Amino acid sequence: MALRHSILAGLLLGLAANAVQAASLVPPGNSHEKQPAVPGASASRTNAGNTTYDAKYQRVYQLLKSDVALREKIRATADDYGIDPTHIIGAIVGEHTYNVDVYDRLQTYYVKAVSYLKSEFTFSYDGESIADFIERPEFAECEDRKGSYTLWSCREAVWDKAFRGRRVDGKRFPDDRFSAVFFQPLYAGQTFGIGQLNPLTALQMTDIVNRVSGYEKIDHRDPQKVYQTIMDPDITLAYISATIRKSIDAYREIAGFDISRNPGITATLYNVGNPEARATRLAAENRLRRKKGQTTKLPEENYYGWLVNDRLEELQALIPAS
Description:
This protein is mainly alpha-helical.
């Protein structure tokens, strides 16, 4: 298994190296002198927990610092996906600083992972399961898509185009994200695990994780297994890495930027999602700028990525030697 992982990682790195030659490097550091505004929802969650951003940052930092085994797993998983471990650490720190507070002990995540296998919930909306929903004729255009990422990205696009905020066949659908409507059965806006992944992202990445890390694929018809996977720290590190790898590849291939040395940018994309759509918009904007004789616009960090770049030396200190 280890040999297979090394070969796959080498292939990923080889493909990346060839493409990077034509990409413009986004240098390390922040483009904004001051941190961009933090959304009100993040402030509300933090205030409700009677804590502060700095306290939450220190708590997740100490969890990582005190758990040598976890940091070793982060480094090893990063190697498998051909990324710097700081990208993974940045995503974890950002999520637990601005989303939910981290648990004091990693063991708590393992315990909760097992508990989800015993829970009873479905991926559905208003009595219609996701399995039945994606059989609607609007999703026919997605049937020939190969790979979990392109398949679920297509389905997400169909949701936005044909269902979001609309009445279809006499049924009114919410003006909300696909992941929030169908994939968060316990409460709205939920993400889980040390990487705070949402189930739709995990479903998108399952083919990559299966191919590189060898973990069993997850399926939308087994929501308990999806949540158990997200909560298991060992497995979810692979999903975090695959998500970051996808962002790096998207910006290189679509927008012509190498963001592999700027963890604040990858953290931003981990936070906001949809890297291919964002890379496409940036590429289109830069085509117009070039026509007007203007300078090229670089990818920019948001409040979440700004923190990662601002604390980069501290975060890099957590990476164990190879």
